[in-house]
Amino acid sequence: MGGVDLWQNEEENLDNFDPQSIHDKMLEVVSISGTWHLGTLQVGLSRARRIAQGQLIKLRFSAPFPVQVDGEPWVQHSCTLKISHHGQAFMLKRAIESSLGHATAIVTDVLENAETSQVITASQKRALLQEMALRLA
């Protein structure tokens, strides 16, 4: 979800779930109702529905069901999925937190992709980046 906090640790949540933590070895399960819901989550207009939290999550499917785990989608047929904490790795996070910095990072990524795909030249990319820097300064 591109950095969207689906669990949202906030004091105003009236459910019985604990705040998420990378140190508690707990898994959080949320649901999203479709692509429109994804878009509203991305811009902060909606929230994902909290379903479960625990060290072992069991999901029983009695019919084919669309599933996505860590960005990987598939259609799951009848089964019982058991998901548990297996280990932990440190992850890097972008230092850019402001919306302007985030937008700049996205535009830079798009321009680099355009150059790699030979849609624009390296000099065109440099010119666009310089123009953007001037306008955002």
TrEMBL record:
Coiled coil: none annotated. This is Diacylglycerol kinase accessory domain-containing protein. Keywords: ATP-binding, Kinase, Metal-binding, Nucleotide-binding, Transferase, Zinc, Zinc-finger. GO terms for cellular component: membrane. Transmembrane segments: none annotated. GO terms for molecular function: ATP binding; ATP-dependent diacylglycerol kinase activity; zinc ion binding. It holds the Pfam family DAGK_acc. GO terms for biological process: phospholipase C-activating G protein-coupled receptor signaling pathway. Residues 1-73 form the Diacylglycerol kinase accessory domain. The keyword Transcription regulation does not apply.
